[in-house]
Amino acid sequence: MEVQQIYESVVNRDAPAVEKLVQQAVAECVSPLEIISEYLIPAMTEVGARFERGEFFVPEMITAADAMQAGLTVLKPLLEGGESRTVGHAVIGTVKGDIHDLGKNLVGMMLEGAGFQVTDLGTDVAPEQFVKAVQERNTDIVGMSTLLTTTMPVMANTIEALAEAGLRDRVKVLVGGAPVTQAYADEIGADGYAPDASSAVRKAKEVLGIE
Amino acid sequence: MDPKENLIRVITFDHPDHVPWFLSMRPDDPDDEGSFQRLPYEGAFPPREGGRDMWGIEWQASDPRLMLPYPVKHPLADLAALDDYAWPDPDDPRLLEPVKRDMHPSRLMLGTHGLTLMERAHSLMGMENLFLALMTEPDKVKLLLHKIADFQIGMAEHFVSLGVDAGWFSDDYGSQRSLLISPAMFREFFKPLLAEIIRVYKRAGLFFFFHSCGHVEPIVPDLIEIGVDVLHPVQKHANDQAKLKREYGGQIVFAGGMDTQHILTLGTSEEVRTEALEQLALLGQGGGYIAGPENWLPFPPENAKAFATTVKEYGTYPLRSDLVDLARQGKNNRDAAASPQSDLP
User: Any CB–CB contact under 8 A between A99 and chain B?
Assistant: First the structure.
């Protein structure tokens, strides 16, 4: 089989094909880490690029993420204990007072697609919940989302809460959502802003100084 | 001129007297001109107090100042349940009781379908379940959408019999930067059914108002084609308003357009005045505009007043040719007031 077909099947959002091809690749002794880093992750990068270009929309993103997960499900048990494919750990959530989650969920999918481990705190997340999540495990990125102008201030409150807990310097804070702008991100001292899920991944890597 | 008559002249591009305006669209809102009223049937929108509605969806009440409650249980999360799902009956007379109670011919009466097709589908299924099923179970989704459309057609027929002047859909197809689904998917799954429901109003010679949040530019020609007269709310930072006015301004009326994400909510009343002048200039020239906020958020009362006052003062046709200059003057005055004093020798 052509291992390249794994890449194409993710971009074509064919989860059963991805599962079968990944199983075949494993049987042909292609290493799990190679499958992830050379085929699955680059495929999700291409999916993100198509989203940014306006060729893919939400259904395509969700089915692409599902297709990648179909491959990861085969590979997870095969990854040795010491092997890590994680490029970083992100804690994400929609801030307190807001229950919209589609954008946040897409960011989570794309971060996982890029090799991040993601802890999704859900919606209506208070500042102290973000703080607790960062205290509980090694965290590189805190990502906050909101759709509503009226809940944007909670992003600033969360950054303050991280600072009060002595955690601000340990993480990079990214913000996004419909009313959020680069100017607002700068005003509240966030480390970055991204307008969509795909560019959020690039921004996360940029602020962490990784390729 | 009577506000309702003026509104009709705006919709028909027939020499309106002034730019109509709205705020909350509630009849008791003193800053709303009150030229139209939305008349939702019982169960069209989620119950503000939360609880289970007639569709079997369970809702959690949200901050009452904000828009709508949010769904916490979806009866059709799995489309396998579709065959056994008990659909509400459009002929149930109780559904029209609030409409009959509230309708008044002094305003343009809009038979209001609330969550219509896309929104009704994802409130029943869950948003991500719907988006996934559009790709993985298209035939079942089409069946679901047909069933929803059948119900909405039934309600449209009742609205027309009751004597409304127009219909209203609340159906979000856009996000801040793009459509949620591709134009092709919109045209395959949603457009034909929306057209069928709208046809009930058009056959009766009535108008049609279509609400979709977010970026809708790619499907504006489709909406014009299926008979939409008024597009709401034409969000400022999600659409190129100038382009929409230029390309479609003579074919469809734009309602809304005023920046709510930032200015109406967080700005000063002077900034609101400037925004209103700019939007009158951009969207109001030549008619085809109903001024209002681009969404419902709690804004300070002084901002609501500043918006209504400005539209009342400057919205009479023919519009002044110096509205942009007036807006700029306001900005310059604010900048000058905010500048640090120079050190005098």
Answer: yes
Q: Say which CATH number the domain at A28 has.
A: 1.10.1240.10
Name the phi and psi angles at B337, rounded to 5.
Answer: -65, -30
Structure token pair of residue A121 = 């705190």
pLDDT in tens, B103-126: 999 999 999 999 999 999 999 999
CATH 3.20.20.210 given to domain B36-232: yes
DSSP states of B113-158: EEE-SHHHHHHHH-HHHHHHHHHH-HHHHHHHHHHHHHHHHHHHHH
Q: Is 50 exceeded by the pLDDT of residue B342?
A: no
> Considering only residues 1 to 60 of chain A, which have any Cβ-Cβ distance to chain B shorter than 8 Å?
13, 54, 57-60
String of DSSP letters for A183-209? HHHHHHT-SEE-SSHHHHHHHHHHHHT
What are the residue ranges of CATH 3.20.20.210 in chain B?
Answer: 36-232
Residues A170 and A146 placed together within one structural domain of the fold: yes
| pLDDT tens-digit series, residues B287-319 | 999 999 998 777 899 999 999 999 999 999 999
Q: How confident is the model at residue B344 (pLDDT cuts 50, 70, 90)?
A: very low
Residue that terminates a domain, selected from A54, A78, A102? A78
Residue A57: give the domain boundaries: 4-78
* Chain B nearest C-alpha distance from A62 (Å): 6
Record the pTM: 0.92
Query: What residues in B contact A13, CB-CB < 8 Å?
Result: 135
Q: Is B82 on the interface with A (CB under 8 A)?
A: no
Q: Of B284 and B338, which is predicted with more confidence?
A: B284
Q: Please indicate whether, in this complex, the C-beta atoms of B131 and A59 are within 8 angstroms of each other.
A: yes
Residue A113: which CATH number? 3.40.50.280
Identity (one letter) of the amino acid at B175? Answer: S
Residue A83 lies in a domain: no
Write the ipTM: 0.90
Q: What is the pLDDT of residues B185-210, one digit of tens each?
A: 999 999 999 999 999 999 999 999 99
Task: State the total domains in chain A.
Answer: 2
